[in-house]
Specification:
By secondary structure, this protein is an alpha/beta fold. The chain is built from 11 helices and 11 strands. Strands 1-2-3-4-5-6-7-8-9-10-11 form an 11-stranded parallel sheet, with no helix packed on it. It is elongated, with a radius of gyration of 21 Å.
């Protein structure tokens, strides 16, 4: 057999490869530690994954990274992964969500080793459900829930409270900015968070101020398309986040050229600023 030391496999848009072929190959390499099968034509056409493919995944006892983006993941697959007790540290399930809250909740409640989780566009998620999931994610280092448009301020601060090791949060196109912010959360500082992407969300100055107080070690902040953020909110971030290096304000319509021009003076640590359109520095 070839490539007997193979540990990582990445397949994208492989239209002529079937589940059976992949399953057969996986069985020949049970020592794989990383598998990425994304935008899989057969899965999209069936709107399901076959049992042979699921069985082959369960045989990968050393698997730490699994990416099945756009592959019609089902609850059945998540239940099987739960039973297999694989040592997963990274799971990516973005796009074409066929699984439900029941399936992902079952898996996350048992797989406490996860450090990186990507469940973009899981439309069934709301604040109440997400807050429950956060209790299972104490070792999480990065999370991407972009496109989960029912998530609000409550979901964000639940992450801060339950996941003290987080260094990266991506919540693009969510409803962060909506809802109240409990005073207890504002006083909660997450010293490790460095990357925060809130682009195209409903974040406003009030929520931005609370976030900047809770996350003073931010290095990268993306606010692209955040139409409710004003100059006041930007100044509050610059005042609290003293290590900030990158700031994206593209399409922030309420931020003026004068504010952008003063940013370097207000926060000398800045190395890159993406300014709102039609502004000249």
């Amino acid at each position: 057999m070839n490539c007997k030391f193979l540990q990582e496999v990445l397949m994208f848009n492989c239209r002529s490869i079937t589940h059976a072929v992949i399953a057969s190959a996986i069985c020949q390499r049970p020592s794989l530690s990383s598998l990425s099968v994304t935008d899989f034509k057969e899965a999209r056409e069936r709107e399901n994954v076959t049992s042979c493919f699921i069985d082959s995944l369960m045989s990968l006892k050393r698997l730490t990274c699994l990416d099945l983006s756009y592959s019609c993941i089902t609850d059945s697959l998540l239940y099987s992964l739960t039973l297999a007790a694989l040592p997963l540290r990274k799971l990516v399930l973005q796009g074409r969500c066929q699984y439900t809250y029941t399936g992902i909740s079952c898996f996350l409640s048992k797989c406490r080793s996860l450090q990186h989780l990507d469940i973009q566009r899981a439309k069934f998620l709301n604040d109440r459900r997400f807050n429950v999931l956060c209790a299972f994610l104490g070792d999480l280092v990065s999370i991407n829930v972009s496109g989960c448009d029912k998530l609000t301020n409550s979901a964000f601060f639940a992450l801060l409270r339950n996941c003290p090791l987080l260094t990266e949060i991506r919540m693009e196109s969510t409803n962060i900015g909506v809802g109240s912010i409990p005073s207890a959360y504002v006083a909660f500082e997450v010293s490790k968070l460095e990357v925060l992407n809130l682009s195209d969300s409903r974040i406003d100055d009030g929520a931005l101020y609370a976030i900047s107080k809770s996350c003073p070690r931010l290095l990268h902040l993306d606010l692209e398309g955040c139409h409710h953020v004003t100059e006041k909110g930007v100044r509050l971030v610059l005042d609290k986040c003293i290590h900030l290096r990158e700031l994206n304000l593209e399409y922030c319509r309420k931020v003026s050229a004068d504010t952008v021009a003063k940013m370097i003076l207000l926060r000398p640590s800045l190395r890159e600023i993406i300014a709102p359109p039609l502004l000249s520095l």
